[in-house]
Amino acid sequence: MSGAPAPARRPTSSQREVPGTFGPKWGKPVGWVLSRTLWSVTRHGLGNVPADGPVLLASNHLGFLDGPLLMGMSPRGTHFLVKQEMFTGPLGAVLRGCGQIPVDRTGDRGALVTAVAVLRRGGAVGVFPEGTRGRGDVRAMQSGVTWLALQTGAPVVPVALLGTRGAGRSGSDLPRPRQPVHVVFGEPLELRARAGVPRRHALKQATSDLQSAMTANVHAAVDLTGMPLPDDTERPDDTERPDDTDRPGDTARPGDTERPTGPGRP
Q: Do 237 and 171 form a contact (C-beta atoms < 8 A)?
């Protein structure tokens, strides 16, 4: 029976294409060259990042440079969760080419499912759990990275970035040329759900454990490098959103967790 073909079905968020492994391989050297030529970057604790197998990099978030810097300075090619608004024009083409994962911060199961697929094939995923740029002291954080760790068993390496934003400067500003910048990789953390604990409570406890580990790594990085965090709270941009808070009835389903955010402006 003849007739007009049925319209093509748009892929759902959970059917999103998983980025290949090649993107981070060429994106990483680009980030490395930019970081090494424009700023004076020192890396610490590289041995804390597993050489292979799944791993999550969870970093504090100070400024616009954080994402590109960590992409270039990570010892492994890494797929970062980046807000979908960045995936437009030439920049969007670059992000896709580097294998980055777009995320809708209003709720995006597909981004989490994509990140799980990357981890299960032994890849590295980067997240900025604070959810917005600020002082970088991890005073509050979202639970997406914790959900990924509990789902996949991937270890989480806390990362402390120092020097990517000066006191009183906007998170959209870049550091001054040749300014010292430090990237400190902490000891990996294994997060496991405790037997008999409801999923929502397990997620909340694991998130608290990771927040404590990230905070401790930031303090240790300040002591190690002598570079303090900005002594102010960065001016909020109109596009920034405050961190989500737990709501009654929330569960640990991927669609209901607080949204993970990525490099650059989340």
A: yes
**Per-residue pLDDT tens digits for 194-233:** 888 898 999 999 999 999 999 999 999 999 999 998 875 4
> Domains of the chain (ranges plus CATH)?
17-225 (3.40.1130.10)
CB atoms within 10 A of CB 246: 12
Largest CA distance in the chain: 76
Tokens 């890849």 belong to residue: 123
Question: Structure pTM?
Answer: 0.78
Q: Which tokens belong to 149?
A: 């760790």
Terminal alpha carbon distance of the chain: 51
- Contact by Cβ (8 Å): 56, 157: yes
- 141/218 Cα distance (integer angstroms): 14
Grouping H, G, I as helix, E, B as strand and the rest as coil, residue 40 is strand
Burial (CB < 10 A; 0-12, 13-18, 19+), residue 106, is exposed
Cα–Cα dist 250/82, whole Å: 24
Rounded (5°) CA angle 74-75-81: 40
